[in-house]
């Protein structure tokens, strides 16, 4: 093989034209060799060797953007968070979900691009049609948030853009979603409390009517409708309390009033802020009561990081990392198979905790 000129030092990414000059061949030949000659065109072994040696000398690597454009895809998955800042703090309730997303994306050969509702141009509200259209930079996108702008997201789906929401969103026709089975997990918590002897329970929810709350309430009411619980729940005030301002409405006097009515177990839901659980715990403390000696407490989800040092609450754990991974699997199935026939619900594991016990003896 003829001696090749020594490659000169250069700055920036080497191009195929430079490889062609160094190897003494056409750029078309370089492209054929470096792409694996999928067309099966006859090339002399020496020609192929010269191209590969020139590429090695120059440090040539294929431009991933160009390759992806040629394949009409980016191998990028978007993650859009409907929050002011992307939830990467380990204390944030979404953080484990993002860990699951990242791990599954890496395992499947995808990179991630992150979008937030606050990354729009100044003066524009987050989450509008223009902001959501930015996700088209990616092949498909995962959406994360308790409250979403339904109309812009619906338009994306109607236009055939692959999208998956992490959390139930079946009110938007055609939108794929993956969520935790809150209804079944909540019903299990109620049954466990009933097995301890509780007959009167109250569920404290935030008043925003998010679907995660709706599912928890559905499971709570379904379990209350079973056996002796059904008869007990018919007496007294309703078993579900929705509060707009938990800190102001769930107070020590409120807890004592419910106890006087015969309630022995209090249940709250996990949300982004865990406002209902925070208010309930603070009210019990302010009333000078403890769980499970004076009453039982249960949390439908995990406590926020700043309350993790307290007694572990009875309830269930949301498999957040698995939710993220399942969402990626669903999205990649949409991209490669047109969809997958699998359940969108991920089961939650009961957590026995230490805040629930038999109801105290009647005075």
UniProtKB/TrEMBL annotation:
Q: Which InterPro entries match?
A: HTH_LacI, LacI/GalR-like_sensor, Lambda_DNA-bd_dom_sf, Peripla_BP_I
What protein name is recorded for this chain?
A: DNA-binding transcriptional regulator, LacI/PurR family
Query: Residue ranges of the HTH lacI-type domain?
Result: 14-71
What's the source species for this entry?
A: Streptomyces indicus
Top-level taxon: Bacteria
What keywords were assigned to this record?
A: DNA-binding, Repressor, Transcription, Transcription regulation
CDD domains of this UniProt entry? HTH_LacI, PBP1_LacI_sugar_binding-like
Tell me the classification of the organism that encodes this protein: Bacteria, Bacillati, Actinomycetota, Actinomycetes, Kitasatosporales
Could you state a single Gene Ontology molecular function term? DNA-binding transcription factor activity
